[in-house]
Write a structure and sequence with these properties.
The chain has about 700 residues and is α/β, with parallel strands linked by helices. It has an eleven-stranded mixed sheet with strand order 9-10-11-13-12-16-17-18-22-19-20, with helices on both faces. Strand 1 and strand 2 form a beta hairpin. Helix 5 packs parallel to helix 10. It is globular.
Length: about 700
């Protein structure tokens, strides 16, 4: 071999070895890049250069490609899809963490850094929320855009069916089944000028538990007819553009699945301006604290309860010939709260589960009507559920005329959490630091246990108290206990009946479900709104709105909407079956009629044909209805505002408070408690003459 040939071979060998370490990710260059232009390849200044290595061991490092989209707003704690707020869109998928140990395969984790701080204190994470395996099935759904869309041609609360039109500007899809769900669209009526405006998708009932959902906004325009722009991050996900956000890139595969599902429903991907997915919590996860407390308390109480102590007996209370005997006292109850006085936290073990502390005494009031003593017979027992910031004693006294009219023994205790027993001040403080709402909800759960202990005690060890006796007759029949709840008592009734085996039938007056959907529509909100908006609290409307929505996951453990899907057959080990009738008032300024509509749809209840209102999607039955149902009454009161606004305080109590005294209404209610049948006591039309002007 000539020297010239040897030289050529040597050069080719060197080149081949160099090329083996200096290739593009997708293959060889058509024209080899000069070695000096390849960073890290034969470069003495490169960090990976090793002068002692053989040539094949010297690797070539290529620069990372520049992202298509550089995002101005990024955070390791936020969902970067919407730059307007750390927790938008809501409910944000970024806070769902994969977890193979849960029923859903997810765990909800919202770090404290993502939660808005109040003007007084930095926020920490919510331990009650982060124990869940998904978002609330009663969640609100909303996002924001750079400009506010014109929703005038979209489905509203009176045209819900329009949302199922294939061309509608918003979609809500069950990703597990492919079903498109009815809803309506609402612009935030509380928006402030210096912040983007929430655009809500309002669900018409509770969503399925442990299910995946997709949300889509498309073809939206503003009031001038200009197309609404999606956020840079969302457009990058939609159009397959790379970003410099690891958090966005980590969600890309999930978003691709979402876009595929929407495409199968006929959605043109290019028309989307916002879209996201979320997963709801399992029933067991929602009820884990409540069921742990109930089961532990039930075991400690046994079949008959522990004991009671009568502290006061008043004969002929009110001196109006309605009351034979008013009995006050206490009963022994398992306690899980560190203190009886709010704000106080629940004691929890190392796993985060509620932990028993001790037995404490809880107050009760029992009223025996005069008619039972006069006729020498016993009357069935009815538990009374009081209203917002009320108490059991006052509720029992207020119903003494009904007690005597129907021959019922009335019993009640306080609904701790929203009772007159210190909760007003605690609730006020919670508006400055919303973490304290956890303590209020823990008191709500303790109240369910209190009612369980009360009924176990008075159907057991205290069923034959001397104070119940008159001329050799026990005036109190504890063999059939039912429930009568008004306002807040109507909201919490399904939780009580689900958790207390002694009670399986109830009347729910002016109640509903999904607390956070109704609160901003209530005149009760006005009482606290000034403090909530102060600089020491949450001056940002968007912070307040997101906090209200997030707290639905707190309320779920006692919210009616959790239990209503199971009212007919129960859920083994978690929920016992029960029957109920909702009796509600049109244009209620305290508990929105819309919240009753939600409850009825969620429970699949029938609507009496004589009702003054037939909500969309609810079966209408001429009656009588055997089992659960609803009747709407109309006193011709002023109309409530449309949207998430509270009405005038001038009409605060009119529709809400004037319904119970109506003969057609209370006759329907007591007949149902006696028979389990809802009869048309309205003579074909459930209307009455309300007084309001």
């Amino acid at each position: 071999m000539s020297q010239k040939t040897k030289t050529r071979v040597a050069i080719l060998l060197v080149i081949s070895m160099l090329l083996s370490g200096c290739t593009q990710p997708t293959g060889l260059l058509e024209e080899p890049m000069p070695i000096d232009d390849v960073p890290g390849c034969m470069d003495e200044n490169a960090s990976n250069y090793n002068p002692h290595a053989t040539v094949p061991d010297r690797s070539c490092t290529y620069p990372e490609p520049e992202p298509d989209v550089v995002l101005a707003s990024q955070s390791e704690f936020c969902d970067d899809v919407n730059p307007h707020h750390c927790m938008l869109p809501f409910p944000a998928p970024a806070f769902l963490v994969n977890d193979g140990t849960t029923a859903t395969g997810y765990r909800l984790h919202i770090p404290g850094e993502a939660i808005p701080d109040s003007g007084s204190i930095p926020s920490d994470e919510f331990h009650m929320i982060n124990r869940l395996d998904g978002y609330s099935p009663s969640t609100q759904i909303f996002t924001t855009f750079e400009s506010t869309p014109d929703v005038s041609g979209m489905a509203d609360q009176y045209s819900i069916g329009d949302s199922l039109d294939p061309t509608h500007g918003t979609l809500l899809m069950n990703l597990d089944t492919g079903e498109l769900l009815p809803h309506w669209v609402e612009i935030d009526m509380r928006s402030q000028d210096d912040e983007p405006t929430f655009v809500y998708i309002r669900t018409v009932r509770g969503l399925d538990h442990d299910a995946s959902y997709g949300v889509a906004y498309r073809n939206l325009v503003d009031s001038e007819g200009n197309s609404i722009e999606g956020s840079d991050a969302f457009v990058a996900l939609r159009d397959g553009l790379t970003t410099d956000s690891p958090q966005i890139e980590s969600q890309r595969a999930d978003y691709e699945e979402l876009f595929t599902s929407l495409g199968e429903a006929g959605v043109d991907r290019s028309t989307l301006q916002a879209s996201w997915f979320f997963h709801t919590a399992s029933t067991a996860s929602i009820l884990q604290d409540m069921v742990t407390m109930r089961d532990d308390a039930s075991q400690r109480l046994g079949d008959d309860g522990v004991g009671c102590n009568v502290t006061e007996v008043v004969e002929d209370y009110g001196e109006d010939n309605t009351t034979f005997r008013l009995i006050r006292g206490t009963f022994s109850t398992p306690q899980y709260m560190e203190s009886d006085y709010p704000p106080a936290a629940m004691r929890r073990d190392a796993s985060g589960s509620p932990e028993f502390i001790e037995f404490r005494e809880v107050v009760f009031a029992i009223l025996i009507p005069q008619i039972l003593a006069e006729e020498g017979r016993s009357g069935s027992m009815t538990i009374l559920g009081h209203g917002f910031m009320g108490d059991g004693d006052g509720m029992v006294l207020a119903n003494r005329v009904f007690a005597n009219m129907t021959g019922r023994v009335m019993i009640g205790t306080d609904w701790k959490g929203w009772s007159s027993d210190g909760d007003f001040d605690a609730l006020t403080y919670s508006l400055i630091n919303v973490e304290y709402f956890q303590h209020q909800q823990e008191r709500h759960m303790q109240s369910i246990v209190n009612n369980l202990a009360m009924m176990r005690t008075f159907t057991g060890v205290c069923a034959n108290l001397p104070e119940f006796q008159h001329e050799g007759t026990n005036l109190v029949d504890v063999s059939d206990v039912n429930y009568w709840g008004v306002s807040f008592g109507g909201l919490r009734g399904p939780a009580l009946m689900s958790m207390v085996p002694e009670v399986d039938r109830g009347v729910l007056w002016v109640g509903g479900s999904s607390f956070t959907h109704q609160i901003e529509r209530s005149t009760h909100y006005i009482t606290f709104e000034l403090l909530f908006t102060e600089s020491i609290a949450y001056p940002s409307r968007n912070d307040r709105g997101i906090m209200i929505a997030a707290m639905q996951s707190l309320w779920d453990s006692t919210d009616a909407e959790t239990f209503l899907p199971y009212h007919e057959n129960g859920l083994e080990g978690l929920i016992q079956p029960f029957q109920m009738v909702y009796i509600t008032s049109m244009n209620d300024f305290q508990v929105a009629t819309l919240s009753c509509d939600r409850a009825v749809r969620t429970g699949g209840l029938a609507n009496l044909e004589a009702s003054a209102w037939h909500p969309w999607g609810v079966e209408v039955v001429s009656g009588p209805i055997t089992g659960s149902g609803v009747a709407y009454f109309d006193g011709n009161f002023p109309e409530v505002p449309t949207g998430n606004l509270a009405g005038s305080l001038d009409y605060h109590s009119n529709a809400h408070g004037q319904l119970v005294p109506q003969p057609a209404a209370y006759t329907m209610a007591f007949d149902f408690l006696d028979t389990g049948v809802i009869s048309d006591t309205c003579d074909g039309s459930c209307t009455f003459e309300g007084i309001w002007d």
